[in-house]
Amino acid sequence: MARGKSSFVCQACGAISSRWQGKCEACGAWNAIVEEAASAPLPGSAARALGRGRVVALETFEGEADEAPRIRSGIDELDRVTGGGFVFGSVLLLGGEPGIGKSTLLVQASAALARAGHRVVYVSGEEASAQVRLRAQRLGLADAPVALAAETSVEDILTTLKDGAPPKLLVIDSIQTLWTNQVESAPGTVTQVRASAQALIRYAKTTGACVILVGHVTKDGQIAGPRVVEHMVDAVLSFEGDSGRDFRILRAQKNRFGPTDEIGVFAMTGLGLEEVRNPSALFLGDREPDAPGTSVLAGLEGSRPILVEIQALVVPSTLGTPRRAVVGWEGSRLAMVLAVLEARCGVRLGSHDVHLAVAGGLRVQEPAADLAVAAALVSSLLNAPLPVDAVFFGEIGLTGAVRAVAHPGPRLREAARLGFKRAALPAPAEEAAKDAGLVALPVATLDALVARLAARAGSDPRQGA
């Protein structure tokens, strides 16, 4: 009997090669290539049938565009991230590190929908039904009428779901544990993950059920498995947080039915995840107002304004190559700000160790944090605290100019609501500060900010001053 053909597939990126090799040429991952059996070819009649099709009606952009029908989960922070609730027939991929709280969040959402009278099915491929039941009892959700099963076969899951009305919500925890008879590969391989996800997506589109797939993450925080799964689903949500802190952040990395980069903030308690209505107060709760090297950033995550503290420590280095340590911000962005401070403002930091951290564990990704970072660095270098009632935001260009950022109004209104009085910002945002009731401190160039801080401290860090 002739041996079936096989291919070698990288489990990190899904690239296919003709032979096994230790390193994937596409992504550079080591020991990630696994031999997998190729799918059986279609019979002749089935292959010929694929050539026949039907005429599809073509439409124009004109006409009414109805908003996708949704069902609210009952958890406001989760509904904010999804764009207002779960869309019927949509598929969501939820990723996060082990123990971060993915299953807890989904159990709470499932219980809320089930108590509202909707049919909810929770399928666990990693835990037994008793373990999921114990978690629900610990959260006080044992009375919620959620249909629970522990199964990994896609065919068995779909057959069970056909026995009754389609559920409004189907939770699969996790997609890496499922397997299907359609392919000959071990569970968790690229082929199995792709085939299992495709079968569940087809079920969601044909029945109108909302399907949530839980995905593992790799060491660098990326969702494990082939990247094609992220393109197949309608939304990709990332559950982030620090094991040493109580709060968790749910971030939308992709959403076909809502805004991207939207975040929801939760706090992990003994009774599960609780919503944080005022995240700015959470991140500024332990702030030390008179400490040098600290500034308050008026940031924006999606459509939500968030105030967060930026902490910097600049000390003379005893090493030939000074340290550059960053937590919660991009290291390349810090290198750029340091280069602009030295080249355009004459602030010598090449012989100093620089440590930068976003207080509270939040990860800031927007360039509007440049001005707050620069202010914190200069404040630490001068050993002089910044004004307690001032917030900072603005993007720094390579020429030293402070450029405008998007949506200054919500940032400034959030700052005024929390009691701040002044705002150092780009010049075009001066009118927005007045509308919010704040005193505007327009900054045209980074050198002007350094000069203002030097005058406040009574010393000038610029060379030749």
UniProtKB/TrEMBL annotation:
Keyword terms, alphabetized: ATP-binding, DNA damage, DNA repair, DNA-binding, Hydrolase, Metal-binding, Nucleotide-binding, Stress response, Zinc, Zinc-finger
Biological process annotations from GO: recombinational repair
A family per Pfam: Zn_ribbon_LapB
Protein name: DNA repair protein RadA
Domain RecA family profile: 67-217
Family recorded in the similarity comment: Belongs to the RecA family. RadA subfamily.
Organism the protein comes from: Chenggangzhangella methanolivorans
Function field: Plays a role in repairing double-strand DNA breaks, probably involving stabilizing or processing branched DNA or blocked replication forks.
GO CC terms, sorted: cytosol
GO molecular function: ATP binding; ATP-dependent DNA damage sensor activity; damaged DNA binding; hydrolase activity; zinc ion binding
Coiled-coil parts of chain: none
Binding site for ATP: 96-103
PANTHER family registered for this protein in UniProt: DNA REPAIR PROTEIN RADA, DNA REPAIR PROTEIN RADA-LIKE PROTEIN
Region annotation (Lon-protease-like) ranges: 353-465
Domain notes: The middle region has homology to RecA with ATPase motifs including the RadA KNRFG motif, while the C-terminus is homologous to Lon protease.
Gene3D superfamilies tied to this protein: 3.30.230.10, P-loop containing nucleotide triphosphate hydrolases
Source organism superkingdom: Bacteria
